[in-house]
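Schema walk-through. Below, the input block comes first and the output block second. Nothing else is stored per chain. Lengths vary across the set, and this one has 282 residues.
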Amino acid sequence: MHGFDWTRWVLDAAPGFFILSLILPLGLRAMRLRWARYGFLLIVLMIVLDALGHSEAEAIAGLALIAGSAWFPVRWYRLSARIKAAWLKRWRAGGGIAVAAPFRGRWKASGCGPSLASNHHLAAPDQWFAADFVRADGESFGSEILAPVDGVVAHVEDGHADIRQRYFRKPNARSPAGNYVAIEVRSGEAERDGASAGEIVGSAAFVLLCHLQRGSLRVKAGDSIRIGDVVGLCGNSGNTSAPHLHIHAQDRPELAIGVAKGLPMRMPGNADWLEVGAIVEG
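--- output ---
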């Protein structure tokens, strides 16, 4: 009777553990890519050691691959819990604004809320309270985007091309917001849960409307703006794979990933934060 061959088990199981760790809906994009590179290098090492006949060394590399595949989801869940707790603490502390729907018609929300599994914006603290919207009753591309607050246009960026829609594409790190408008919110003294659209709770805030269509912006820096004024058209510019509107509030007028402080936003009909899939009507 043969004893248990641990090396054979490791060599058979390691690739499966690695593949499973990558297909599970875990990890931010950067985390997944980093782990994919490390895992791929370990697989290459296993192949080289197998060709050289070093079976035990190959099994040790396989053990490292299995350990990494188990460590990855553990690290993910710990990070997710830590970010969710911090997100909820900032949300409950106030210091945010109430905004009107920045569009007409019915739009579906995504990339929002405190869950790292469903909100990719949590990778950037300035966009923790952001939301993406796609139109649920028509085409997003070309739909009018409206000012969700009263204020003054603080910053405008235009000239970025609308990209062809496709799932796999290289991230646009140079101009991730694409064409966008930042509106400085007029200050007010609203209560945290009784704020009307455009009223700020706390210090100055700016609302950013991103991924607009090139050449469609109808405002310029310094313009006074009222809720419902058209600022431009929904486009597909910047770091995006499909036409949609990205909106978030922060403490400075220009996009500053990792530098600006994101501020909570509340939309009409939503006493709490937006859930993924929620329909907002403008």
